[in-house]
Write a structure and sequence with these properties.
The complex is a heterodimer of chains A (115) and B (110). Chain A has no helices and 11 strands. In chain A, strands 2, 4, 5, 6, 9, 10 and 11 form a 7-stranded mixed sheet that branches. Chain B has 110 residues and is mainly β. Chain B has no helices and 11 strands. Classes of the chains: A mainly beta (115), B mainly beta (110). The interface between A and B is medium-sized, with 20 and 18 residues.
Chain lengths: 115, 110
């Protein structure tokens, strides 16, 4: 049963600390998305990769957030320094750009709390 | 104006009822359309892709109306397990952007 995995599932940290979240996309998928979900804002797209290349990171605060794909099996989202307003659930999703409808499949998310 | 708009609800319906959700999108060049289901504190899960001709999967029927720029989801014979938030998703005109609605909350009551 192929699925997207994310680590850690929960993270509590103090303001100013670095946070790194990891995602393993479904094997064979070539698109990866990072989303943030809060009660107030709903789901927001932070970054989008295709074939490991960043195509769109316009939704991401550039001063503190960075997203990378060191290889096809790992995507990372880093926040440095973290702030309380970053508290949210961060989802990774993967898909295949070769499919007609480009469905995305989500990981279980990382629930981040910044104190 | 938001790219995708949904009625947040909540919709509270009795078991066995039929319920329908609509979602409107702003850009006529949008390419792909989906319904996702999200349970409390869980990730969104793909429920259905919405095909131009409409499609049905068991008790669920999805329709696309390009002229009026909306998609719909119909749930027949509602079950308690259908209680969730239903997210409308539109793949944008560039192919890169995916726009999520804020979700419609459904509670099916015994």
């Amino acid at each position: 049963d192929a699925r997207v995995t994310q680590t850690p599932r929960h993270k509590v940290t103090e303001m100013g600390q670095e946070v790194t979240m990891r995602c393993q996309p479904i094997l064979g998928h070539n698109t990866v998305f990072w989303y943030r979900q809060t009660m107030m804002q709903g789901l927001e797209l932070l970054a989008y990769f295709r074939n490991r290349a960043p195509l769109d990171d316009s939704g991401m605060p550039k001063d503190r957030f960075s997203a990378e794909m060191p290889d096809a099996t790992l995507a990372t989202l880093k926040i440095q320094p973290s702030e309380p307003r970053d508290s949210a659930v961060y989802f990774c999703a993967s898909g295949s750009s070769g499919t007609p409808y480009n469905e995305q499949f989500f990981g279980p998310g990382t629930r981040l709390t910044v104190l | 104006r938001k790219e995708v708009e949904q009625d947040p609800g909540p919709f509270n319906v009795p078991e066995g009822a039929t319920v329908a959700f609509n979602c409107t999108y702003s850009n006529s060049a949008s390419q792909s359309f989906f319904w996702y289901r999200q349970d409390c504190r869980k990730e969104p899960k793909l429920l259905m892709s919405v095909y131009s001709s409409g499609n049905e999967d068991g008790r669920f029927t999805a329709q696309l109306n390009r002229a009026s720029q909306y998609i719909s989801l119909l749930i027949r014979d509602s079950k308690l397990s259908d209680s969730a938030t239903y997210l409308c998703v539109v793949n944008g005109w560039t192919g890169n952007q995916f726009y999520f609605g804020t979700g419609t909350s459904l509670t099916v009551i015994p």
